[in-house]
Design goal:
- The chain is an alpha/beta fold.
- It has a single domain, classed as Vaccinia Virus protein VP39 (Rossmann fold, 3-Layer(aba) Sandwich).
- It is built from 6 helices and 9 strands, in the order H-H-E-E-H-E-H-E-H-E-E-H-E-E-E.
- Helix 1 runs antiparallel to helix 2.
- It starts with 63 loop residues before the first helix and ends in an 11-residue tail after the last strand.
């Protein structure tokens, strides 16, 4: 087993760094990309000058008739989505049950709610997106494989959907968002979905993590940096996993497991495309 010290920089394209004592051994790989998946489907940047607004003008709720109509169909649509995820190789029943339970249409703009259960990223404002269902399910399945994490951090809460999914099977979910408007959107969405009490949502610099809440059994990063921040690696418990996209133009999904007090194991998974991981906050 190689003992690597952070930070981990991006590797040259086509070159895999051995992650065990056997030189040249290929890193652990996740399941193959589902048919029809493309890099642009994950968490693609979409330039939009104004954020979407999920809430009604004054009441703070979607139009009642729309909510009724969507509610009548959403259970069936979620079942179709979950069946599709199974066909795409998602096997973790905890993740599948959570995605069946969480109303994804409640986390996107009302005008896009009819597309909420497609396997596609959708804009949520501020140049950001809600990741496609397969990406959410895959990342959560990887960090939870063969274990039951108790405390998980999400970096880049966005509209709050992924945190809500996590909260269905993880006892302590922490989420951090750097864009003030998205933080407020996630806070409201989680409250309407009944998940706010189970998610500890913070406004702040995700690259710094949450030092006051360490250690974490899992960390999910929803934006791509040139390298994975050392501060996040240090906040993992021994035996815990972090999953994050890494790179600029050519991005890879990276799995890192902390295997000792001062050692981490790194594996490269799929090619992906996420928005950039940025420092600081945006009001």
């Amino acid at each position: 087993m190689s003992k690597l010290k952070p930070p981990f920089g991006p590797q040259r394209r086509g070159v895999s760094r051995p992650t065990t004592a056997h030189a040249g051994q290929q890193p652990e790989r996740g399941p193959r990309l589902p048919a029809g998946y493309s890099a642009a489907n994950s968490n693609t940047r979409i330039n939009m000058p104004q954020p979407f607004s999920l809430v009604g003008a004054k009441a703070g709720l979607p139009d009642p008739q729309f909510a009724l109509n969507m509610g009548l169909n959403s259970d069936r649509q979620r079942s179709v989505m979950v069946s599709r995820l199974r066909e795409q190789g998602i096997e973790d029943e905890r993740v599948l049950a959570a995605m069946q339970a969480v109303p994804r249409h409640a986390f996107v703009d009302q005008g896009l709610a009819s597309r909420a259960y497609e396997d596609a990223a959708l804009p949520i404002g501020y140049g950001q997106t809600i990741s496609q269902p397969w990406v959410v399910a895959h990342m959560l399945s990887v960090i939870c494989r063969d274990r039951q994490p108790v405390r998980v951090l999400e970096v880049g809460a966005g509209c709050g959907y992924q945190a809500a999914v996590l909260a269905h099977f993880v006892r302590e979910v922490y989420a951090i968002e750097r864009v003030r408007g998205l933080y407020e959107q996630a806070r409201d969405n989680l409250a309407r979905a009944g998940s706010r009490g189970r998610v500890r949502l913070s406004f702040g610099d995700g690259m710094a993590g949450l030092p006051h809440a360490v250690p974490f059994d899992g960390i999910v990063v929803s934006a791509a940096g040139v390298k994975i921040p050392e501060s996040l690696l240090d906040q993992l418990a021994v035996g815990a996993r972090l999953i994050a996209p890494e790179g600029t133009v050519n991005q890879k999904l990276i799995l890192i497991e902390r295997v000792g007090v001062a050692s981490w194991r790194r594996s490269e998974l799929e090619n992906v495309r996420f928005v950039p991981l940025r420092p600081g906050t945006q009001n």
